[in-house]
Structures are given as structure tokens and as C-alpha cells.
Amino acid sequence: MMDDRALVSAIIGGDLKAFKLLIKQHERLVAHMVSRLIDRDEDREELCQDVFLKVYEKISEFNFQSKLSTWIGTIAYRQGINHLRKRKIELSDITEEDSFKARFIASENPEEELVDNDMDEWVIKLVDQLPTQYKTVLTLYHVDGMSYPEIGNITGMPEGTVKNYLFRARNLLKEKVKKHLGKEEMI
Amino acid sequence: MMNRADEELQSQIEKGHPADGADAAAYRKVFSALKKEPSFVLPTSFSDDIIKRIEIAKPQTSNDNLWLGLGVFGFVITAIITIVLTGFNPGVGAFKFLSGYAGLFAFGIIFILLLNYFDKKFIRPLAS
């Protein structure tokens, strides 16, 4: 197993096998981030490729101030946000927290109803409806097991904001699930 | 604003500590679902595809440039020898008739330039 320093210097030296190893080690993280930010499947793979091409182009600028995974995550996040902006897809606004919360909990979309009682699947669909920043912190924290400072580095948010968004996002999901569970009890 | 009790409850559930009530039950379901990986997975050929793209985009090596230079040099020498041996006299002879269609040529050039302009300005933004 190559450490990050050896891997990076091999890539800078033109070793494409080393770069392939880097892709294998980090493709899961990039796929998670991109799939949370981007809806269309056909755009996702292309964007993941663009992320790694950017990593290859910029690898000589990596200065080991952070973990390699954090640096790659930052590139993936920025590429994702740029893609949304280029497609003129509005980044969900989280400034009007109270009205969003009310709308989110009250919404009754038949498409988001539970299929085969698969609660996990349903919650994941709810995650997709959350603002971009909430989706990102939830994925990095729960799926990729990153710490608050690492998430802060990737997204450029202060650590307190990361904690706050994580709390609010889980709270929104809880309210929605609680409402559903209450309905089930009534039936 | 963060609600202190709710924040504490989230922390308890995350650590796997027991907690009662509807909020705790809902949080347990949320935490369980959040651990699930997104369903999107990259194809097994993903890393190979990127390596191919890098290899295609790679600038030519000095070796490639040397062969290209030798090829061009060989072509020029062959052309000079051929002209000398055959006594070929370059002239515009066969193309003289074109001077009578200057307007048509001007129209063709302007038309192609306009097509490119409209393609860049309107068609490509619509397609992307």
C-alpha cells in the first residue's frame, strides 16, 4: 500500500498506474458527493471524470496541508457546484429556514410515499429534497465518515455551520418520519 | 436555532444510547437510513476510461516531434526533386476561370462564417 506522499510524487513523475490507484481509492467519495449534488445519471459519470481530470491537472499544487481525500473532496464539491450554476440550477436557499421547514414537513407527494415499506429508501428520497448544503454535510458525515473540520475544509463552511446544518437536516428528516409514523399508528 | 434537547437526543441516538419516545424512534430510523450509500455507482471501467482520456490529451513527446520533423523534411526534399526532374512549371492556368465568379466566392465565405456564428451563438447553447 502506497502512502499519499509516495502516490502523489509517482503521479507527478508521470506514473499513470499510480494515478489509477488514486482513482480507485477515492472514486467512492467522489461518486457519493456528485450523486447527492446532481440529479441526472448521465451527468454524474461525466462530472466524476472531470473531477479526476482536474485532480490530475492540479496534483503538483497539492501541498499536504490537508488529507488527500479532503483535497479531492474539495475539488468534487466545487466542480459539482459549478455544474449546477452552469446548468442554471438554483442552489436551494436555506436562508428562509422556517418556511422551508413548514413546507418540507407538510408536503404530500405521492411519489415520495413509501414503497414496500422501505423506510430507508424513503428517507434517502427525502434527503434529495433538502437544500444542497444539507445534503452535502449529511453525506460526508454519515456515509463517508468525515469529521466536522474535514467537511468544513471541503465545503468552505465554518465548523459551527457544519454542525448546525447537520443538526437541522436530521431534525427536518426526523419531523417528517415522525409525522409518517404517527399516521401509521392512526391506521 | 439549535434546540438543546433535540441536539442532546441526536447525540444519544448517534452513540447508540437508549432513548424513549416518538422523537427517539424517528431519529433511529433517520440515522439508520443515512448510513446507506447512495445507489449511484461508477462502472468498473471508470479508472481505465480516465487514463485513456489522459493518454489522448497528452502532449506529443519530443520523439513524436522528431518523427514529424523528419517526415516534413522528407516530403519537401521529395517535392523539390520531383519538380526538378519533371520540369514542372507552377502556374494558375486551370484556376483562371474563377476570377469570373468573385461574387459567388465572397457569398460562400460570408455564408460559412454566418453559419458558424449562428451555430456558436444559438445552436450550441441550446444543445448543452
List the helices and strands and how they pair.
The complex is a heterodimer of chains A (187) and B (128).
Chain A (H helix, E strand, L loop, with lengths): L3 H9 L3 H22 L3 H18 L9 H19 L10 H10 L12 H10 L3 H12 L4 H8 L3 H28 L1
Helix pairs in contact in A: 1-2, 2-3, 2-4, 2-7, 3-4, 4-8, 5-9, 7-9, 8-9
Chain B lengths: L3 H12 L6 H13 L11 H12 L4 H25 L15 H26 L1
Helix pairs in contact in B: 1-2
What this model shows, in words?
- The complex is a heterodimer of chains A (187) and B (128).
- By secondary structure, chain A is mainly α.
- Helices cover 73% and strands 0% of the residues of chain A.
- Chain A has helices spanning 4-12, 16-37, 41-58, 68-86, 97-106, 119-128, 132-143, 148-155, 159-186.
- In chain A, helix 2 crosses helix 7.
- The model of chain A has no long low-confidence stretch (mean pLDDT 86).
- Chain B is built from five helices and no strands.
- The model of chain B has no long low-confidence stretch (mean pLDDT 86).
Task: Describe this structure in a few short sentences.
The complex is a heterodimer of chains A (187) and B (128). Chain A has 187 residues and is mainly α.
Provide keyphrases for this structure:
A: 187 residues; mainly alpha; Arc Repressor Mutant, subunit A; 2 domains; 9 helices; 73% helix; B: mainly alpha
Distance between the termini of chain B: 41 Å
Q: Which class best fits the helix and strand makeup of chain B?
A: mainly alpha
At the first level of CATH, the class of the largest domain in chain A is: Mainly Alpha
Residue share in β-strands of chain B: under 5%
Judged by helices, strands and strand pairing, the structural class of chain A is mainly alpha
CA-based gyration radius of chain B: 35 Å
* Rounded Rg of chain A: 19 Å
